[in-house]
Automatic annotation (TrEMBL):
Domain Formamidopyrimidine-DNA glycosylase catalytic span(s) in chain numbering: 2-133
Matches recorded under PANTHER family: FORMAMIDOPYRIMIDINE-DNA GLYCOSYLASE
Gene: mutM
Subunit comment: Monomer.
Name assigned to this protein: Formamidopyrimidine-DNA glycosylase
Cofactor entry: Zn(2+)
Length: 290
């Protein structure tokens, strides 16, 4: 599942290829169309397909930015501006290619869902094998309020104070620390993989409740989340199984994982244990983590 570093990598790959281009035409896959017809929103959410087209076709791409695990594409025409919001779910990906047939990874080519034809000869193609991702064409961000509740970006100064305030609130005080850091109202963009890695580095067991952690441990957890996310970005994200960032590129952060998906702890060489915490498969080292 793409987490903050993977989404940042996607943004960096697609931005130079789409910025300044005008969206000429938007096409949807049969799965998306049928989903709408039967009232089950598949990928394109919150608007009808007609309204999605109306809000995106003939608009120029003015900026692309990431917030947490979302990519926002700001678009404008002479009259107004809109925002395309994108979340990759489990297996979503973008390709910027002249044509669908140029996507070389079979599974992604077969599972295309939305094609944005640009006036620069490229197509921005959203593919999604498992279809948990979503695209929305918004008038403004207030139309999708849950985005406004996301914690500040982990790398900005106020993020630590925000995290402390949140974890010590009633909602999280009695929860396992792993549950708290996976919540994007606490820290933006930290998913399962990076949470496991950060807790190993901080030496804190994922099952410990927030109220049992010392101030120092709370700070260490935050600092290590920031560190692993930063390293993830520097390494182009993690590519697990058939995950690709954008245009079929793979990151290398998975080579630096010490605990996630491992049998042996990368720090001490001891056996890695697993436990399901809040429905997520959690890997930890009982020797390095207390
Ligand atoms: Zn260990």
């Amino acid at each position: 599942m793409p987490e903050l570093p993977e989404v940042e990598s996607v943004k960096r790959v697609i931005t130079p290829k789409i910025l300044g281009a005008t969206i000429q035409k938007v096409t949807f896959s049969d799965k998306v169309k049928i989903g709408k017809e039967i009232g089950k929103e598949t990928i394109v959410k919150g608007t009808s397909l007609e309204l999605f087209k109306e809000r995106t076709e003939h608009y120029k791409i003015a900026s692309v930015y990431r917030r947490s695990k979302y990519i926002f594409i700001e678009i404008e025409n002479e009259q107004d501006n809109k925002i395309i919001m994108c979340h990759f779910g489990m297996t979503g990906a973008f390709f910027t290619v002249p044509d669908l047939s140029n996507i070389e990874i079979d599974n992604h080519r077969k599972h295309w869902h939305v094609i944005f034809e640009l006036d620069n000869g490229l197509q921005l193609i959203y593919t999604d094998i498992r279809r948990f991702g979503e695209l929305r064409a918004l008038d403004e961000l207030t139309e999708y309020p849950s985005v406004l509740k996301i914690a500040p970006e982990p790398f900005v100064q106020e993020a630590y104070e925000h995290y402390l305030d949140k974890i010590t609130s009633k909602k999280f005080m009695n929860k396992p620390i792993k549950v708290a850091i996976l919540d994007h109202t606490v820290i933006a963009g930290c998913g399962n993989i990076y949470a496991c890695e950060a807790l190993l580095r901080a030496g804190v067991l994922p099952t410990r409740t927030v109220k049992d952690l010392s101030q120092e441990e709370r700070k260490n957890v935050f600092d290590e989340v920031v560190n692993v996310l930063q390293e993830g970005i520097e390494n182009g994200g993690s590519s697990i199984s058939d995950y690709y960032n954008a245009d079929g590129e793979k990151g290398t952060m998975q080579d630096k994982h010490n605990i996630y998906g491992k049998k042996v702890c990368g720090q001490c060489g001891g056996p890695v244990e697993q436990k399901v915490i809040a429905t997520r498969n959690t890997h930890y080292c009982p020797n390095c983590q207390k």
